[in-house]
Design brief:
single chain; alpha/beta; 7-stranded parallel sheet; 8 helices; 16% helix; elongated
Length: 423
């Protein structure tokens, strides 16, 4: 019988609907980040850097790009004979086939996978946060306290505490109570959605609660463990951690990478972030180009000017074009004499010559103001914008558009242009 001390289960099935058109064709953990990475690279790299070499990745929504990105796990050194990385989509069972309905239901449906490693501990992670964390230190804390469940928490500003699941602890960091999004929080320790369970404790809680609709850790599993007297502890994390679940937080996290002293450093020798890299030629900057405070991915050609931006791999930026405060993902082509202000452009888009994005006064987005805001212009993947178009702020374009889609070559602030067949 194989025996692993701790295995990880990485929840990567989320749609990430608050990222709008960025996730209409791709799962949130597979969204590009920081010029050459995808969001899921961060928890996967944390695993291998922490000595966790067995990771089950639970996929569901639009998994194709995620599956091809992970492959057999070579970039993370997770191509092992025993353990390694395994992609776990929902599958047909003899009695019925069912989608994963809640975070804990997804784990429950993979009991056999976990059982095969006979682990002592199971680490539960989510695939959509940007952070570096040594899970081994958390495991040592878990063992030292004889905990059955350890929940990673981080202090948040008091005024934001009501947005999170909040843990109330005693002076030994034992959890005495918890509240989901409390109106009047009694603590500011927010759950990060990172858990270490003793395998026996986890298995019992999942089996006993299996028939709960949308079985969830916060709503069902952890309360069950607490009520049955399992010792629950809070492990306090003080490093950088960002939930990039909204367009504005995604934009901010990318922009923080290019700060003069980045709070989140991608260049640390002892804690590398691994990813699957395409074989690309080096960047090319033409004699007339200008680049300031930006990340430029491999294989990108810059003939214009780039300021304060994160540019992916294989991008072309035409002569006379000025890009500011923007995120441009892999293999996007931008024509000549364009102006881009605070734009997020997804992969494989084509922007014509003389296009201006992010121009004029702000207006709330007409279809989804809770998604498209903060003055950002969002262009979905494989979208095309013809020559000479001007686009306002808080607007979104998705699909292959033609001049006929724009009145007087203009799309006003707050407008949504999504071509049929793209949603």
């Amino acid at each position: 019988m194989i025996k692993k001390e701790m295995i990880a289960m990485l929840l990567a099935g989320g749609q990430g609907s608050r990222l709008g058109v960025l996730t209409s064709k791709v799962a949130k953990p597979a969204v590009a980040f920081g010029g050459k990475y995808r969001i899921i690279d961060f928890p996967l790299s944390n695993c291998i850097n922490s000595g966790v070499d067995t990771v089950g990745v639970l996929t569901q929504y639009q998994p194709l790009r995620l599956n091809t990105h992970i492959g057999i796990g070579i970039p993370w050194d997770l191509d092992r004979n025993i353990g390694g990385v395994t992609v776990l989509p929902p599958y047909e069972k003899s009695t019925n086939s069912e989608w994963y309905t809640g975070t804990a239901n997804a784990i429950y449906q993979n009991l056999e996978y976990m059982e095969s490693f006979n682990p002592e501990y199971v680490l539960i992670l989510s695939g959509d946060h940007i952070y570096k964390m040594d899970y081994e230190v958390m495991l040592e804390f878990h063992k030292a306290n004889n905990a059955e469940v350890t929940i990673a928490v981080m202090p948040v500003p008091w005024e934001e505490a009501s947005r999170f699941g909040i843990m109330i602890t005693d002076d030994q960091k034992r959890i005495t109570d918890f509240e989901e999004k409390p109106a009047n929080p009694r603590s500011n320790l927010a759950s990060m959605g990172i858990y270490i369970f003793n395998w026996k404790t986890l298995k019992e809680a999942l089996v006993k609660n299996a028939d709960q609709p949308a079985l969830d850790f916060g709503k069902h599993v952890i309360p069950y463990c607490h009520e049955n007297g399992s010792p629950l502890y809070a492990y306090e994390f003080t490093g950088y951690w960002k939930d990039v679940g909204t367009l504005s937080s995604y934009w901010e996290a990318n922009m923080e990478l290019i700060d003069i002293v980045p709070e989140f450093n991608l260049y640390e020798e002892y804690w590398k972030i691994y990813t699957k890299s395409e074989i690309q030629p080096p960047q090319y900057l033409s004699p007339n180009s200008k680049v300031e405070r930006s990340i430029i991915g491999e294989g990108t050609e810059v003939y214009g000017e780039v300021y304060n931006s994160v540019i992916g791999c294989g991008v072309v930026i035409g002569a006379g074009t000025v890009v500011r405060d923007s995120i441009i993902m892999n293999h996007t082509k931008i024509g000549e004499n364009c102006e881009l202000h605070k734009a997020i452009i997804a992969e494989n888009a084509q922007i014509g010559n003389g296009v201006k994005l992010g121009i004029g006064d702000e207006a709330p987005n007409e279809t989804a103001p809770h998604i498209y805001n903060q003055g950002i212009v969002t262009i979905g993947e494989k979208s095309e914008i013809p020559d000479g178009i001007t686009v306002g702020k808080n607007s979104v374009i998705f699909g292959v558009t033609t001049a006929a889609d724009y009145e007087n070559s203009y799309l006003a602030s707050g407008k949504t242009l999504i071509k049929a067949g793209e949603e």
